Amino acid sequence: MELEGLSKRFGWNWALRDASVRVEAGTTLCLVGPNGAGKTTLLKLVATLLRPSGGDAFVMGHSLSKDPDEIRQRTGFMTVRGFLYDDLSAAENLHFTMRMGGLKPRREVVGRVLERIGLDDVADNRMRTFSTGMRKRLALGQLLVRPIEVALLDEPYSGLDSQGMQLVDEVVSEFKAAGTTVLLASHQDGEAVREAEQTGILRKGRLEILPDSEPLSRHLSVGGPAGAPEVV
Amino acid sequence: MSVLHRAWAIVWKDLLIEARTKQSFNAMVFFAALVLFIFSFALGPDTELLQRVAGGLLWVGIAFTGLLSLSRTYQNEETSGGLEGLRAYPGDPRAIYLGKLLGNIVLLLLVEAVLIPAAGILFQANLWPHAWGLALVSVLGTIGFSLVGTFYSALTVNLRAREVMLPLLLFPALVPVLLGAVNATTLILEGDLMGEAIVWLRVLGAFDIIFFVICIWIFPIALEE
Fold it and tell me: Could you tell me if the ipTM is greater than 0.85?
């Protein structure tokens, strides 16, 4: 995946300006930075949910501005709240994800994913009865029910307990082993953040790739609650 | 997987949620009943007058009630991240429009299945002899109403004043549908001795075809940020 001067402007404000980076398949780019720095904007641009104001990005050779649907086919996006419906059960939410992803929903696939994310015993419970952590796990499960080449994770650790955080780390490792490129935006420390091949810091919409020598801990709110102001 | 399969997935999801929560259906039925009651009280016990204006009153009720359903069309996506959730999936975005359109049509027809017999009782009109004709007007009118409404609902979903903007945009565009549906219903209820209802049914059919093509064509633009 390659970003080439990717920019996004909302009115007069530049949310992202001239972001350029190359991320090899099977590696992770971790994005850190204060609130409003442009992390979610960058992820939404790659997910084709926003149209770039300038520049372009290429996913497996497909241009963001010319072939957005090719990119959507290959990309999975886990947002902070997840694209989930309160009045559907966990299993139904995953069935819907499979259908919308162009796949025939298969009970055994959904069952396997629910078991993987530790929600198999509440598969038929409506999502509105779920805790924040359980919702987060289900949102992670949405990335696992269809084959993707790029995984976009926005604050994947927020609202999760230590077991949940470990699950995120394991899933990211599995993605990388399978050759899936991972873009991860996080305030919080975690194995997936520490083991990212590249770390980019966003400040006022400017992306800067950190040199290996610079300690990442300076840019994270370690152990703090989700959304806590970070130490930069 | 085709556009139709994705559209069907959205219909399945929306109707399943509606069947569980009955949020829209209950509100629509009660609101429609209220509108018909108010008209019936306002016009008094003059049976002849009630029967003469029954077609118009019925479609005013349907239009106001339909507005409730339309304004919720995309709002029920809010818990899942709004329309972004659906846009993040691959495939032609027209599937979203088709899915939402079919969901609206089914829901509105279900409400009409309660509303039309209720109107018959309130306005003291015997609807049974005209059941097929009324069903045809109802289906064509509902399709036309939902075609335009589902489109404008997407266009206004992110506006702050969407509750005001939706009817302001929608009703002028619906004039041909309401005109056709009211005239066809009135003629059918009066027995349609001159066979004039077919003209209005053709108007409704033509409106449905033209607006289906236009809305399907330009819907991806309405979805842009």
Answer: yes
